[in-house]
Amino acid sequence: MALNLAYKLSRRGLLVLGWLLKHGACELSEVAKGLGLDVSEVREALRELTQEGVVDESYGVYYALPVPGNLLLKLSLGFEVSEEEYRECIEYLLDKAFLEKTGLSRAEYERRYSESYRRKVVEILAEVEDKYRRELTEIRRRLAEHTYNRRKPVGKQLES
User: Fold this and answer.
1) Would 75 be classed as within a structural domain?
2) Less Cβ around it within 10 Å: N or C end of the chain?
3) What's the CATH number where 17 sits?
4) What are the pLDDT digits (tens) for 48-68?
5) pTM, two decimal places
6) How far, in whole angstroms, is CA 38 from its chain's centroid?
7) Which phi and psi angles does 109 have, rounded to 5°?
């Protein structure tokens, strides 16, 4: 998925996405200044990233969405991905799928249909995990590997 995303994006798009993954939410001018690019070039790259569904914008601040492709790309670039980021990814996918399937947010569905809410969450979560199985498995594998390597004594880390 990370490679698929990397191949889909322009060079500038990939550069801007890497910047956002490393630095977090930023304004357009911050990204342009940090990368040494013209604001119009960054704006075009951000438009591309938004269309791909990997970046969003709120009040002029752009941020990478917690989607599996972004987490895998982040790992591939050598950045850390926390358990919290992984959970946010699952929550984001679940919220998105819930809205697509029911036309309601999870909170709204729970308020209206509290008796069937849990069953619906389990049903949609199973669909999400099935759809993104390969990517989520790879992220979990890399997280487990990273956690294991952090727990080993320094000498053992150097041997591997």
Assistant:
1) no
2) C
3) 1.10.10.10
4) 999 999 999 999 999 999 999
5) 0.80
6) 26
7) -65, -45
Evaluate whether 56 touches 26 at the Cβ level (below 8 Å). no
- The span from the CA of 49 to the CA of 154, in Å, is 39
Tokens 């990814």, residue located: 89
Neighbours of 113 (CB within 10 A): 13
With helix as H, strand as E and coil as C, how does the chain read? Answer: CHHHHHHHCCHHHHHHHHHHHHHCCEEHHHHHHHHCCCHHHHHHHHHHHHHHCCEEEECCEEEECCCHHHHHHHHHCCCCCCHHHHHHHHHHHHHHHHHHHHCCCHHHHHHHCCCCHHHHHHHHHHHHHHHCHHHHHHHHHHHHHHHHHHHCCHHHHHHC
φ, ψ for residue 37, nearest 5 deg? -110, 160
